[in-house]
What does this fold into?
Amino acid sequence: MLIRSGKIQFLFWTAFFSVLLYIWIVAVGLQTFVLPDEKPMVIPENIVLLMIILYGFLMIAILAGTIVSIMINNKFYTKFFAISVIVALGTLLLTKGMFG
It folds into this structure.
């Protein structure tokens, strides 16, 4: 059995949960705003609040992973979290551009 250091395990689980949070955000957004049979007349506040909270958790996870990966000089996770920030903010801008 290969035993990794605690820092690498932290980076792995942070990356795993950040990907999971991102998929959750995209799934909720698609189910609520893009794929329903009828467009909602009023924006559902509870769904928007859920997505804001999920984006907050996502940014905290990505920021924590970025800081730890830079501190231990791990190139793979530094690139992973940098790409994650770009994708998350790009998705946020795309969503804002589509729905105002």
Observations:
- The helical segments are 6-34, 45-71, 75-99.
- Residues 6-34 form the longest helix (29 residues).
